[in-house]
Amino acid sequence: MRPHAPLSIQDHQSTPPLTIHEKRAWLVHRPLNVEKMNEAALLLHGKHDFTAFRSSNCQAKSPLKTLSRLIVTRSGEQLTITASARSFMHNQVRSMVGSLQMVGDGHWPVEQIREVLDSKDRAACGPVAPAHGLYFTKVEYDLE
User: Fold this and answer.
1) Residues contacting 139, CB < 8 A, separation 6+
2) What Cα–Cα distance (Å) separates residue 8 from each residue in 22, 45, 70, 78, 140?
3) List of residues 6+ apart from 85 with CB closer than 8 A
């Protein structure tokens, strides 16, 4: 089984946000650098200890998770960050997205993501992205 969880970000630079996106996307009022966000996302691919991206309320038995996909795409002012893994911990996707946003707006260098991951310290992580904009879209099952 592999769940897919995309999260939407709307980065409005000049025009006021459309009300249709209210509570359906994370509204960020600065342009985000998708290329840098994807560079940082690649550092999270594979099997890692994701303790730094784990909620203090998480009940998962192990922080070891294998992230098979984390990609940022843009269509106009709409960014979609899609994450795929066999399983996620409580707030893991939202924590990764909040950290990628820090890279995308230039507050963090790309390498900061590796430092956060290696720290295994929740305090080193970026902000937790709001839940609105996070959707569970599909599950893939291994038929073997």
Assistant:
1) 1, 2, 3, 4
2) 11, 20, 13, 7, 21
3) 2, 3, 65, 66, 67, 68, 69
* Spatial separation of the C-alpha atoms in residues 92 and 80, rounded to whole Å: 16
In angstroms, rounded to a whole number, what is the distance separating the alpha carbons of residues 92 and 98? 10
Per-residue pLDDT of 61-94, as tens digits, reads 999 999 999 999 998 888 889 998 888 899 999 9
> Any bridge partners for residue 57, and if so which?
none
What is the amino acid identity at position 10? Answer: Q
Count, residues in the chain: 144
Residue identified by tokens 């080193």 is 124
Q: What is the DSSP string of 94-117?
A: HHHHHHHHHHHTTSS-TTHHHHHH
Sign of torsion over alpha carbons 125, 126, 130, 135: negative
pTM: 0.86
Enumerate domains of the chain plus CATH numbers. 2-14+21-137 (3.30.70.660)
